[in-house]
Amino acid sequence: MRLENQVWESKYHEAVERLTREEAQWRTAESLLRQLVACLGHIAHGAHDQVDPHIERLSVALAGPMEPLALEPLVNELATAISALGERSAGNHEDRSIAITRPHRNEHGSSVQSSLSRLVERIVVLPRLADRANELRHDVADAGDLVALAACGDRLADLVNEQRIGLQREIDALQAVLRHVTNRLDEMSGYMSRELADQSVGEANGQALDASVAHEMRLLGEAALEIDDIHELREQVNHSLETIAFCFRDFRDRESARLTAYRERAEKMRQRIEQLETERNTLQRSLEREHELAQTDTMIGMPNRLAYEKRIEAAFENWRTDGKPLGIAAIDIDHFKSINDTYGHTAGDAVLRIIGQALMKHVRPCDFVARYGGEEFIVIFEGAEEAEALQVCERLRGKIQHLAFHASRQPVRVTASIGLAYFQAGDTPQAVFNRADLALYTAKNGGRNRCVMG
């Protein structure tokens, strides 16, 4: 029981540490968002003198540790000012300098949209926020101007902040559970201490009884030597026997009371342990479910980037130990943006689901496949030689090419490019992923719908 409790306590500590690390990641993401908004402000600064003061105040606020709730009024003021300019532009077609529409998107706007899109794809959100993150991803892709991108950036900042708050709540909840379990363990420890003390009391009672009987027997022996009158001796014997009988009754009563109290404490502790077991099982199921959801892409129903990162970390440790071949394949759907633009995001999501399910179906049972983000998937090959893994990649590429897609009653041709890289001496998971990603873009630059070894 004690060992099992130690195991669970260790798991709770690990969970708290994991959530703390994730919170740190979200703080980093929040910092990147601040930089992104500052970049947007820098691009827009000088566009109109009525907007510049709002941009300057927002830039100053972003440079400090101000909370999102405090930033919200500044963002709203900027949005109101931009909206007013847009209304003026609509009423005065000759004032081209203040119009912010799709034709005014320049290379800066495209760069911001690309950066924001990558940031949305890279983050791993809590399961309950997955739908909002997916909706935001679509809105970033559809954003036609800097105003829309700024609004998306603001929503992403809110999403990151809500994620951070949610993670803190999970940390607090786990710490509360840990305190509860610690109190229960302290209670059990106290119970054991009381039982040890009670055992000492029982031993002391027995020793006192032995001493009383020995004392009376000694007095009786002395009387037998000194008393000649048989009647007087009989009285002394009866007195000693009564005294001994009293000692035994007192001992019995004390032990009976002690055993009764022991049974009551034991029953109470049994109930406590039973309750703790129930709570532990409930918590275990809850943690397992949350852990499963946190590592699942809810739209496709397959492992997500977080699951990949945990799996590649374990696979990397195994590779360093046993040296068996280990590779990573990066898979990206070709021209996926044009599918979204032509047929809509619903069709794009359907393509992602069908391809994700096909990948899970056609990899080897020992391989691991996950959605890395956006239209990119990733496969981990453990124990497979490079040639075998390349064959699997070619098979996957062929399966994707021959999948039947239809949108608006029209066939849609979908292909994928794949980059494969293997671990070598001195490699890290990130280094191998970068090589696989580079091989993927080599495949795209070489005509797409092909596999390239990195």
Automatic annotation (TrEMBL):
Q: Known InterPro entries for this protein?
A: Diguanylate_Cyclase, GGDEF_dom, Nucleotide_cyclase, Rev_trsase/Diguanyl_cyclase
Quickly give the catalysed reaction: 2 GTP = 3',3'-c-di-GMP + 2 diphosphate
Where does the record locate the signal sequence feature? none
- Record keyword Coiled coil present: yes
Q: Which UniProt keywords apply?
A: Coiled coil
The record, for SMART domains, names: GGDEF
**Coiled coil, from the record:** 252-293
CDD domains with a match to the protein in the record: GGDEF
Which Gene3D superfamilies does this chain map to? 3.30.70.270
Give the enzyme's main class according to its UniProt record, as a single word.
transferase
Q: What is its EC number?
A: 2.7.7.65
Q: Which domain of life is it from?
A: Bacteria
Which stretches make up the GGDEF domain?
Answer: 324-454
Q: What is this protein called?
A: diguanylate cyclase
Query: Source species, please?
Result: Luteibacter flocculans
